[in-house]
Amino acid sequence: MMTSNNRVITKKDLRKLFWRSLPMEFSWHYERQMHMGFCSMISAGLRKIYKDDPKGLAEALKRHMEFFNITAHVSPFVGGITLAMEEMNANDPDFDTSSINSVKAALMGPLSGIGDSLILGTLRVLAVGIGASLSAQGSILGPILFLAVFNIPTFALRYVCAYKGYELGANYLEKIQKSGLMGKFMLAAGILGIMVIGGMTNELVSIHTALSIGNGDGATKIQNILDGIMPGMLSLGATGLFYYLMKKGTNVMWMIIGTAIFGIFCAQFGILK
């Protein structure tokens, strides 16, 4: 078993892992997706671990060219765990190398669930909402705040993940599953993501009707009636309709084409504005 006395990975090596995680998706492709990016991310650490064992290094590099895909921002966590396991392998001739890719595969799903919910489904939407709202008002703070709100937390997350992944090593998955924290955390992240997206629907989806009841100055605008019942009702309804169609597996391109045709028709006959 590996101990702290025979560890060769240092904080400097983990910083390299952090920086190498940034272009993780540059080589993404459909067959094995992020495998080359992952292998590149940990390659400096592997060379240090197997510096006196060229055959072991070659086998390790080949081992990490297997299929891999995860939310890129949490990939350093898996990278840190992988380097800890590779150190175990280098110091234990009886170590089962197949367990390394098994742990990687086991972590892909749970961490992607958390990463997609928190980062892509919540933080990115929040950043876009803030940036787009300010940009629509002509403020230069729009793009600046978008970049800051999204990138500062994600860069910090990558950095912490690199250290914590290596520190906790291969025992992390077993611990978090036994505690039940993974399921609870994913549920909380999903609820938070739904709340954020739902709250921003009225801001980012804008639909107003031009129809009215009656003629002249005494006409009652239907939009005012709808706003009196619930502001943003049409926007919420449109969002719900698209959600329903996506759940039914409707082709996105048909949804886009249908929306364009419907919009042109409604604008032509004064139904929407």
Automatic annotation (TrEMBL):
A Pfam cross-reference name: EIID-AGA
Keywords per UniProt: Membrane, Transmembrane, Transmembrane helix
Spans through the membrane: 114-134, 140-160, 181-202, 222-245, 252-271
Superkingdom, taxonomy of origin: Bacteria
UniProt cross-references to InterPro entries, sorted A to Z: GatZ_KbaZ_carbometab (IPR050303), PTS_IID_man (IPR004704)
Any Gene Ontology CC annotation: plasma membrane
Protein name: PTS system mannose/fructose/sorbose family transporter subunit IID
Organism listed in the record: Enterococcus cecorum
